[in-house]
C-alpha cells in the first residue's frame, strides 16, 4: 500500500481549473519530486493534500484511507507536515518557540525532547541561535527552521514547497543535503515541489512533471533527467 495516493484530483479556483484530475503515488520512504513551470499547479496540489483547499473531484489516500473529509489540523496529526513556499516561520518568535509550535499536533509528547535533539543535530545552526528571533535569521536559516518545525510534528510525510526558492547557491546545496539526510536517517517520505529540477532530480527517487494542471510525465529521476522533453523544458541544455 502506498503511503500517499492521489487519484483523479481536481481543484479549481472559480472558473480556473488548476488541477484536472491528477494521479500520483508515493511509497513509504521515497523522495518524489513534482516538477513544473510557474502556474502548473504544484502549490495547489500540496495545498489540496493538506486540506487547505477544497477539492472538486478525486480522492487523496493516506495509508489507504481517504483524508478528504479530515480537517486541516487532523492531517497534521495523521503525520503529514507541510512546509509552505515562503517558509511560514513566525518572525517575532524565537527559534525555539517556533520549533515548539511544531509540537502542538504531536500525539507522542514523550518523543518531543528526542525530536528536538535530532533537529539540533541536523541543524546545529538552529541550536546556536535558539534564542534569536526567527525574523532576524537569514533566508536559508529560516528554511532550516521551517524544516525543523516540520520534523517536530513527528511526521511520516513532508510536503515541501520550493525549499530552495530565493536561497544562495551554497544554501541551496545545504537544503537539498538536509532533505536527503532527513529521508535517509528518519525514513521520512518526502514530496518535493521544485523549480530547481536539476537538484530535485539528484536527490529524488522518482518524479512527476506537471503542466497546466495535468501530469504529463512520470518516472525514475534517472529516466526523467535523460528525457529530452525534461531536458529541454526544465534542465536547460546540458
Ligand atoms: N487563490 C487563487 N485564485 C485564483 N487562481 C489561483 C489561486 N491560486 C492559484 N491560482 C491559479 O492556479 C494555477 C496553479 O497555481 P499554483 O500556485 O498551484 O502553481 P505552481 O505550479 O505552484 O506555480 P509556482 O511555481 O509559480 O508557485 C495558476 O494558474 C494560478 O494562477
TrEMBL record:
<dbReference type="InterPro" id="IPR052156">
    <property type="entry name" value="BCAA_Transport_ATP-bd_LivF"/>
</dbReference>
<dbReference type="InterPro" id="IPR003593">
    <property type="entry name" value="AAA+_ATPase"/>
</dbReference>
<dbReference type="InterPro" id="IPR027417">
    <property type="entry name" value="P-loop_NTPase"/>
</dbReference>
<comment type="similarity">
    <text>Belongs to the ABC transporter superfamily.</text>
</comment>
<dbReference type="GO" id="GO:0015658">
    <property type="term" value="F:branched-chain amino acid transmembrane transporter activity"/>
</dbReference>
<dbReference type="InterPro" id="IPR003439">
    <property type="entry name" value="ABC_transporter-like_ATP-bd"/>
</dbReference>
<dbReference type="GO" id="GO:0016887">
    <property type="term" value="F:ATP hydrolysis activity"/>
</dbReference>
<keyword id="KW-0547">Nucleotide-binding</keyword>
<dbReference type="GO" id="GO:0005524">
    <property type="term" value="F:ATP binding"/>
</dbReference>
<dbReference type="GO" id="GO:0015807">
    <property type="term" value="P:L-amino acid transport"/>
</dbReference>
<protein>
    <submittedName>
        <fullName>ABC transporter ATP-binding protein</fullName>
    </submittedName>
</protein>
<dbReference type="Pfam" id="PF00005">
    <property type="entry name" value="ABC_tran"/>
</dbReference>
<keyword id="KW-0067">ATP-binding</keyword>
<keyword id="KW-0029">Amino-acid transport</keyword>
<dbReference type="InterPro" id="IPR017871">
    <property type="entry name" value="ABC_transporter-like_CS"/>
</dbReference>
<keyword id="KW-0813">Transport</keyword>
<dbReference type="InterPro" id="IPR030660">
    <property type="entry name" value="ABC_branched_ATPase_LivF/BraG"/>
</dbReference>
<feature type="domain" description="ABC transporter">
    <location>
        <begin position="4"/>
        <end position="237"/>
    </location>
</feature>
Amino acid at each position: 500500500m502506498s503511503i500517499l495516493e492521489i487519484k483523479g484530483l481536481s481543484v479549481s479556483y472559480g472558473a480556473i481549473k488548476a488541477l484536472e484530475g491528477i494521479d500520483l503515488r508515493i511509497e513509504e520512504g521515497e523522495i518524489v519530486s513534482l516538477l513544473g513551470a510557474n502556474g502548473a499547479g504544484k502549490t495547489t496540489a500540496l495545498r489540496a493534500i493538506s486540506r487547505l483547499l477544497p477539492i472538486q473531484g478525486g480522492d487523496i489516500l493516506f495509508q489507504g484511507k481517504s483524508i478528504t473529509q479530515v480537517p486541516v489540523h487532523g492531517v497534521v496529526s495523521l503525520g503529514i507536515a507541510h512546509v509552505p513556499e515562503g517558509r511560514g516561520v513566525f518572525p517575532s518568535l524565537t527559534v525555539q518557540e517556533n520549533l515548539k509550535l511544531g509540537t502542538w499536533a504531536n500525539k507522542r509528547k514523550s518523543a518531543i525532547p528526542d525530536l528536538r535533539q535530532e533537529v539540533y543535530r541536523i541543524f546545529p545552526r538552529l541550536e546556536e541561535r535558539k534564542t534569536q528571533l526567527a525574523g532576524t535569521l537569514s533566508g536559508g536559516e529560516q528554511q532550516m527552521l521551517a524544516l525543523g518545525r516540520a520534523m517536530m510534528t513527528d511526521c511520516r510525510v513532508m510536503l515541501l514547497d520550493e525549499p530552495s526558492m530565493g536561497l544562495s547557491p551554497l544554501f541551496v546545496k545545504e537544503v537539498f543535503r538536509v532533505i536527503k539526510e532527513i529521508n535517509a536517517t528518519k525514513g521520512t517520505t518526502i514530496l518535493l515541489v521544485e523549480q530547481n529540477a536539476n537538484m530535485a532530480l539528484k536527490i529524488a527517487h522518482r518524479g512527476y512533471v506537471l503542466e497546466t494542471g495535468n501530469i504529463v510525465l512520470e518516472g525514475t529521476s534517472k529516466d526523467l533527467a535523460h528525457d529530452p522533453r525534461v531536458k529541454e523544458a526544465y534542465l536547460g541544455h546540458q
